[in-house]
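sry for the spam today, last one i promise. struct tokens for design, 172 residues
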């Protein structure tokens, strides 16, 4: 059987390279994005991330209201959740809202802090979907990921800047 993750690569409308977990993920992304209220970086990231997992694709309507644009925090506590699907949802919520929205579900400060920790990189990326999470981050922050430089390009730029500073008589 062919690896669908490797076959499911495409160029997005803004000419960025996109990688999908499988054909169902790619189909879900384009269908839901077309239905979304707008196709901004917030919606692109949310829909892409929620499409990674079969569980979150199947229960999309329990996670997000595509008509109103509201997330449904209560989905995190439903019986169909797996550790991977919870990570997918937390990252999607964080990229969409720039917050840890489910922390508000807890009245005690200790409960809120525990929930905030569940949004940490080490918790969220500790699953088999991590390699696809990068694509969602690129969609959410295109201005920072538009042209990725290699380490060699970064170091060459730093050397160039140092050389410019030393010829200007400036010290580092």
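last one done:
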């Amino acid at each position: 059987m062919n690896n669908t993750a490797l076959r499911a690569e495409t160029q997005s409308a803004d000419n960025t390279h996109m990688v999908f977990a499988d054909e169902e993920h790619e189909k879900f992304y384009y269908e839901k994005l077309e239905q979304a209220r707008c196709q901004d970086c917030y919606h692109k990231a949310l829909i892409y991330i929620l499409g990674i997992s079969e569980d979150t694709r199947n229960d999309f309507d329990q996670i997000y209201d595509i008509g109103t644009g509201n997330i449904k925090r209560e989905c995190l506590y439903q019986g169909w959740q797996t550790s991977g699907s919870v990570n997918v949802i937390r990252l999607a919520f964080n990229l969409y809202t720039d917050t840890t929205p489910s922390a508000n579900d807890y009245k005690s400060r200790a409960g809120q802090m525990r929930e905030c920790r569940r949004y940490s990189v080490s918790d969220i990326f500790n699953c088999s979907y991590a390699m696809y999470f990068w694509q969602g981050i690129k969609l959410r922050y295109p201005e920072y990921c538009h042209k990725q430089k290699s380490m060699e390009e970064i170091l060459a730029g730093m050397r160039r800047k140092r050389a410019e500073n030393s010829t200007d008589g400036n010290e580092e």
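Residues 1-15 have pLDDT under 50 and may be disordered. ok im logging off now
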